[in-house]
Amino acid sequence: ALEGLVAMKAGDFDKAVSELEQTNSQNPVFLYFLGESVIASGDAERGKDIISQVAHFNSVNDLNYALMRARATRRLNELQTAGT
Hints:
Elements: H1 2-10, H2 13-20, H3 28-40, H4 44-55, H5 63-82
Helix pairs in contact: 1-2, 2-3, 3-4, 4-5
């Protein structure tokens, strides 16, 4: 997971996607950054779907979800407004 975040920060989005796809898909933090990396690597529709999963993640008492839901919802609204 950390390698994926480092790759994303360095602009190596293909590596970021590869690394983040191997993380826990129930962790909304990693899922959100996977979505952003997928968008940056050129697949806006798939990235939007992944971010939508984070925005609508169904979890109770999950700190990761609490931290990422608002961010994912804002980003999803931006993507929908942009028409991607």
